[in-house]
Amino acid sequence: MIGIKLQWENTYIIKYIFVFLAPIILYWRLFFIVFNEAFNNEMASYILVLPFLLFYILYRIRKTVIASASQQSSNFTHKFIIKDIIGISLCVIAYFISLYGSYSFHSLEINILSLPIFVAGIIILIFNIKTFRILLFPVFLLIFLIPLPFEIVQLIGSILSVYSSKAVFILLKFFKLAVSFSNYYDNPIITLINSNGKQIQFAIDLACSGFYSLTGFTIFAIFLAYIYRISYKKKIIIFLLGFPLIYSLNIFRITLIVLIGYYFGLNYAMNMFHLMGGWILIFFGTLLLLTITNKVLKLQSNIQTSEVCLHHNKNEEKNYCLDCGKILIAPLSTLTRNEGIKLLFILAILFSTNFLQVPIVTLTKGEAEVLLQKSTGEQTIASVLPEIEDYAPGFVYRDVAFENISKQDASLMYRYQPKNRSKSTIWVGFEIGQTKYCLHPWEVCLISWPQEHGWTPRVVQLCPLDDIHLIENPPLSARFFAFKDKGTNVTQAVLYWYTKTVVQMNKGFQEKWVKISVIKFDFNPNDYISVENELLFIAKAIVEYWLPITTWSSIALLIAKKGLTLIIMTGAFLLCVIMFYFYLERSRRRIVNKIYSNISIQKEQQILDSIKKVDKDIATEHNILRKFYELTGYELSLDELRAKLDEAENSGLIERKITSINDEPYISWKPNF
Question: Is residue 382 located within the same domain as residue 489?
Answer without folding.
Answer: yes
